[in-house]
Amino acid sequence: MKRKPELFKKVLVANRGEIAVRVSRALKEMGIECVCVYSEADRLSSHIAFADEAYSIGPAPATQSYLNIERIIETAKKSGCQAVHPGYGFLAESHEFARACEDQGIVFIGPGSKSIEQMGFKTQARKIMKGSGVPVIPGGEEPLSDEAEAITLAEKFGYPVIIKASAGGGGKGMRIVRAAGEMKSAFKTARNEAESAFGNPAIYIEKYIDRPRHIEVQILADNYGSMVYLGERECSIQRRYQKLIEESPSPAIDAKKRKLLGETALKAAEAAGYRNAGTVEFILDQSGRFYFLEVNTRLQVEHPVTELTTGIDLVKEQIRIASGFPLGIKQKDIKPEGSAIECRIYAEDPSNDFLPSLGKISRLRNPAGPWVRMENYVYEGYDVPVYYDPLIAKLITWGQTRPEALARMSRALEEYVIEGIETTIPFHIWVIRDENFRKGDFSTSYIDEHYTGKPTDEHRKVPSDVALIAAAINRVESTAVPKKGSTGTTNRWKDTSRREGVS
Amino acid sequence: MKRKPELFKKVLVANRGEIAVRVSRALKEMGIECVCVYSEADRLSSHIAFADEAYSIGPAPATQSYLNIERIIETAKKSGCQAVHPGYGFLAESHEFARACEDQGIVFIGPGSKSIEQMGFKTQARKIMKGSGVPVIPGGEEPLSDEAEAITLAEKFGYPVIIKASAGGGGKGMRIVRAAGEMKSAFKTARNEAESAFGNPAIYIEKYIDRPRHIEVQILADNYGSMVYLGERECSIQRRYQKLIEESPSPAIDAKKRKLLGETALKAAEAAGYRNAGTVEFILDQSGRFYFLEVNTRLQVEHPVTELTTGIDLVKEQIRIASGFPLGIKQKDIKPEGSAIECRIYAEDPSNDFLPSLGKISRLRNPAGPWVRMENYVYEGYDVPVYYDPLIAKLITWGQTRPEALARMSRALEEYVIEGIETTIPFHIWVIRDENFRKGDFSTSYIDEHYTGKPTDEHRKVPSDVALIAAAINRVESTAVPKKGSTGTTNRWKDTSRREGVS
Amino acid sequence: MEGYVKKGRRVVIYYASINGRDAKIKIEKKNDMYTIEIDDRSYVVDRQHLEGSGALSLVVDNKCYEASVTRSDGALLVCISGEKFEVTLKDELEYRSASPSARHTGLESEEIRAPMPGVVVCVEVEEGQRVSAGTAAVIVEAMKMQNEISAPAGGTVKQILVREGDVVDSRQVLVVIDRG
Amino acid sequence: MEGYVKKGRRVVIYYASINGRDAKIKIEKKNDMYTIEIDDRSYVVDRQHLEGSGALSLVVDNKCYEASVTRSDGALLVCISGEKFEVTLKDELEYRSASPSARHTGLESEEIRAPMPGVVVCVEVEEGQRVSAGTAAVIVEAMKMQNEISAPAGGTVKQILVREGDVVDSRQVLVVIDRG
User: Fold this and answer.
1) Is D75 on the interface with B (CB under 8 A)?
2) Which in A27, A203, B479, C44 has the greatest CB count within 10 A?
3) Is C82 on the interface with B (CB under 8 A)?
């Protein structure tokens, strides 16, 4: 697959939402034409506005559009694309999709179908980890055939155990099981979710580590055997096993551990002959012990925090590598600076167990100013669709130190206005102000342990009297009091006067 | 004036617009309460939304509000502020204001009244420059008493000459005069503008260098004699002697020249005992010779490009220095990285000689994404007032190289939507695409020499057929065709059908 | 009565509840400025409407806030700097006539509603089936997450109003349980 | 006539001018999609209105654009990706009845208008004064910039409609010049 290094002229982005916009922006900056695809539910999604060309690829459900390999390949060929960027989620880790691209002479911007299918990176990672003193979490690699098998394995490892989607990532198809009685329901919903999210119902089981921290290492590898690691990210703030806040560097990692994890990750990638961007995930238990968790053979949602500390545009690097360019960066030149943090803005109601919140965005003000980065795709008037992931934006800040990055995040979150739907903004404000989080004292159980969904007064900055004032003025001035038999509306002042007999 | 280093608790921002928001954001991130002031024309300006407290200080004209020293000092005292940040423009270089603050025990966040009044920095700069081989532009320091004096001096230096406001900066009160016959009108308008912008009509004259480049050096100095320079900015893209685009580093400066200018600037600041942030401006003529231009004893509009290459928050540094903290940065640690560029978004019509364009912003979409920074204050529905500077936003991008920074800027400008008023966005798009600018081949005469105000097809990316399609669809679908005697409106399709007798 | 006239000025009174706290609000307007008393504290308020956004710019005794107020199920939702508050306001009339939680008590049947819009993946109960509180009744998928909707109380399934594949709105009734 | 019916479909024709180029546009709608012919090229256009913004999302033969269209003095201003275009459209009727620049010629008096809103700083002419083209008539300040507004043609100052300190709107008449 050696090709003369030459940037692609035209690339198809096989995704939607903020990541489609992110990739389009990189393509535009590189002077590459950007083709996007959209389902029937997404004609008004702004990833279309950020692309050069747009093609409709089918009905709203992802299985009929964003997961429709045949249709996407056909679109890439029809539009004359030389490569496809899969983003994350959807087909990003589908070896069938990568193979279909390759068969049609289209470059898959990622590690290649063989690498994905054989999970060489993952296998090698497990081997390398053992040799380097980082153990692997006990667990079966094999898809579970039924509930009974799950229970047998769980008893072998000891509860708690966790069920995960084989094709997965991003918390979809994941369930913790703490006792045999919970297995039935967990098995079923995990399977359904896996099917719905990845088009593949396969799930497996492993030992669950209590109160761990999630640490991962970003790597980049070119087609000629050069590779680098770009420091770690900590992603321990999670709900439903899905990340909500990520940062780099991790407050739990020192230079020595950083080097150990980074070099171990590279060894695994090297042994596997891995190419393009990848992430090796670890968990750190309460006693300070690392376990190898898994390997992601794609761009991560949280890649911006690494970008802001290193200055390296990971999406452009992915595209350059796939175009056949050798990596222009050497390990010794990578000196991450300062601290970066990302808050994922989901259309979910944090005061109601993070249930999805849908509807039209009636008002939107994005934060801005120094060292504030927005990755977004929604706009005022946009109707958040029911069919896809509820991630509507990512807010990332950088600071010379972690406290500065957090102070910027806090300031930016306070500027952020999204009305019409519930979002995770109030949750993020709460976390960034929380003393445990500020001290770096947290684990993946943080939300269960600390967050009630109802901020108490000590976590508030705005006096409740101000909310009463706003409500009272709103009611008094409300013109939405229709008068029977009158053509218009009236307002409360007039209304009151009439009741009083004053006119 | 040595005080125990302790951050202020509360600071008044004596300014409006984007710079008031910029300073408020820094204060919020530092945990300092932020008090803002506003004129009667500015109650709906969003610098209020970004502050903790707001005080009305008088009628719309700046001379009665933002230049009203007494009223601002009174507000600072009433609200319990320990310091005042003047931003740029208005009172930022008023020694009377700095003195009035000092008299009332309020810290003026800047170099102090004596330093401003005696222009020690400027005087020392002139001396140091001569010794270092950087000459001073021939010109009178003294305010001109009348037109005749101006003509006498102009004849001494040789035409062209330039008239400048003594209190000034930012192009206000500046006029080039190429022959004696132009002096009368230039003298009068420069004086009027100086009066209106700075409350001081004093103007002076100097030799005008043709087709120069404008290069300036940012310095920071603490109260204890430590000082650093933070690289240079090039600000040659100007109209009416006011900067429109700035970048760091300058494509015309190499490491040797950078060091020469930086060290010369520091020597001048050292000799003058200068404190806080300051800028030393130079011009570079066509033969590669530097001249000392002037010194600005305040924050510059274009400070963000230095921030993005150095990672240093200049506003926070100003506040820390004024709070009595020693500079935490050493010259050897300042290693500017990559390239940053700023486009100033003015409410002006570039196709109509950059005349101010006022009115309501009917639609606004700010650009975002990787390494894009917005400094803004306007919002959708905001009515840009007639009384103040037409700068409505600054867009800044960073890249590992100048071409990358430019590619990001181009991409961000194409995303940027401001409707309802004319802005400089189309101008910036034109410049960033222009070959001369991309090659770094430009001077302060660039706009006069290259920009016609009417982009030709070779500078366009959007085919004109698409504009025709948009216009035709708009007209055909327009519902703004009131029908006589009917209650509603109708659309063109129905209209056409009726004319055709089809129903 | 909701308001009265005091020295020629109109005054409106509300009985408010916010985060479990009760308060009495007296609101009075003069020259486009409000004087608002909450319990024993008095505030001078300058409010402006931000064009187009429906938001209020409030300067309350010189402190600045930007507030948005929306209605939801009889309450007012106030959002200021990313913090959310739920406020209920009653005027004198409403306050006096309100008897504690008159609605939805003593009902013989209970409705299971969708907590958010989504697609019905599976109906787990049948008409006539006995269920207890917490029994999963319907699984609704929204944004790739499957959510079990459970019976809030025990009883017999009286009516099933949706089936697999249906797109449901927030608050739509999915199943009716007979509590008898 | 502006449009006609072709095989049951409605067709509208415009005569357009853009950046000095003339073009004939044939526009036809079918099933919510447009077929638009410009001179000899034909485009299939899917247009959607972006909620709230008044902007159009256009997919023109699979190429994407976001366009805003505003009216100004009889022309349509189109903005796409920061690039601005001025388009004039005439239907058949307007096209036939339009005689070249019928307006504003042969007028006996000429109006000097404010090119933007601002404050009048100074009126430089007097009624009855003879002026030539380019003579500064009024200085208007907006956003701290002073702008000389000059007479577009020679003549005698007939009427001065503003004085120092007046706030003027864009296009407001400041001075009337008698061209006689």
Assistant:
1) no
2) A27
3) no
